[in-house]
Amino acid sequence: MQKPPPTHPPLPSRLLRPLPFLPFLLLRLGRLILARPPPVLLNVVSSCCCVACSSPPWLPSPLFVSRCRSLTLDGPFLAPTLVARVVRKLSFRCQSSKLLLGAGCVAGKKAPLSSGGGNVRGAVSASKAVTEKPNSGSKSDKADLLVTKDEGLELYEDMVLGRSFEDMCAQMYYRGKMFGFVHLYNGQEAVSTGFIKLLKQTDFVTSTYRDHVHALSKGVPARQVMAELFGKSTGCCRGQGGSMHMFSAEHGLLGGFAFIGEGIPVAVGAAFTSKYKREVLKEEGDMPVSIAFFGDGTANNGQFFECLNMAQLWKLPVIFVVENNLWAIGMSHYRSTSDPEIWKKGPAFGMASAHVDGMDVLKVREVAKEAVERARRGDGPTLIECETYRFRGHSLADPDELRAPAEKAHYAARDPIVALKKYLLDNEIATEAELKSIEKKIDEVVEDAVEFADASPLPGRSQLLENVFADPKGFGIGPDGRYRCEDPGFTAGTAQV
């Protein structure tokens, strides 16, 4: 005969009264803690992470974290970006920019992957030097500095150029000087500068629709970029590319691409060319490196995975840089991705991978150095996730009403240009006067670019059939050598070829 289940005396009613409010209180308390986690808590948890090299059993489960991330910012719930931030911090000490991870990752054990078997050079000291303030009243040890004076000023100038140029683009767009969609790069300058300023002119870069600053960092003159935005014939694409399709073969800029993911296979193709010339054609000299920039939304695109496989299979000299600004237009990264840590997709292919603070140009630069060196010496590709943030809407047509004000304020306080300026001044690498001089110089460069673009001519009708056919002589050019569109009877839409 089955025994009846044991009965327990009922709990006193006074103990049950607070229970309906318990989840509310816990969420409120959690939000306060996650908004500004106590340093002691972070140090204790990160120490446990470093010892075990895996998440402690008492950390929130991935399911709990994913549910918290889906909650709204309103009311008592946990802000998704704050949850993500604290979880990142808890695990950042053992899996962030301090190691390049790859085939050595087995069952959570993270072994560095590089030809020499060592860690990323300088990454540990980079993190320490950026976060710690120098001792008051004493000069910083020059050996501990992450950049020389010339390097620091170059980084600062490039970042200020990108920011000032984009701010001017916004003004010109609202004045009707630009047409179509214009996507600005404000806030993400540390990523472009940190990587591209390490490259040579013979190296290659592919970009996205947010490509103005990548073009500037790669050396395309501000005049040409602004003229292209104005649709003028003096632009880098003679006015035919516009905002989302910057291109300059001379500077190794292989294009901005309006469709997400389209630049990745182009960068892999350029890397294959470099590898082929070195190993098959036996060309000497440094092997050109390719860098593909793309956003977090692209990491769910099929071409991304196909190119990771091909690049790792053939050890191509390419670097995949994820500019994770947490939003794909209006879709939060944490709502659209099953595993929001994009850098972890690399080890699935045996690829060296890393996560880095994309709001800190010095940290980005240290990780980029190792990745570029690995690619150039033939050790293969690297996947690097840079966690950054755009300060404006998706485009200038976006009112930016979906992102919470608290989230925007949090990242605005971590402005990468302000952070670099503080580092240069605190460590006596540069003076206030030198930085002011750079800012004044950039203002003049941007103003000159606008004047040049405004005064430049529009493309002629003769350009309509250029770059359309492989052999224009049989199509767009008449027997007399003149373009068909120049014939008196030519009208748009009725061109006879």
Could you give a short description of this structure?
The chain is built from 17 helices and seven strands. The protein is an alpha/beta fold and 497 residues long.
Please give a structural write-up:
The chain has 497 residues and is an alpha/beta fold. It has three domains: 23-95, no CATH class; 123-134 and 143-455, 3-Layer(aba) Sandwich (Rossmann fold); 460-497, no CATH class. It is 41% helix and 6% strand. It has helices spanning 13-16, 22-35, 39-52, 62-69, 80-95, 123-131, 149-174, 189-196, 212-217, 222-229, 263-279, 302-313, 333-336, 361-376, 405-412, 416-426, 432-455; strands spanning 204-206, 290-295, 318-324, 327-328, 331-332, 352-357, 382-387. A five-stranded parallel beta sheet has the order 1-2-3-7-6, with helices on both faces. A two-stranded antiparallel sheet has the order 4-5. Helix 3 packs across helix 5, helix 8 (189-196) packs parallel to helix 14 and helix 10 (222-229) crosses helix 17. The protein is globular, with a radius of gyration of 26 Å. The model is unreliable at 42-138, 471-475 and 492-497 (pLDDT under 50). It catalyses: N(6)-[(R)-lipoyl]-L-lysyl-[protein] + pyruvate + H(+) = N(6)-[(R)-S(8)-acetyldihydrolipoyl]-L-lysyl-[protein] + CO2. It comes from Physcomitrium patens. InterPro entries: DH_E1, PDH_E1_Alpha_Subunit, Pyrv_DH_E1_asu_subgrp-y, THDP-binding.
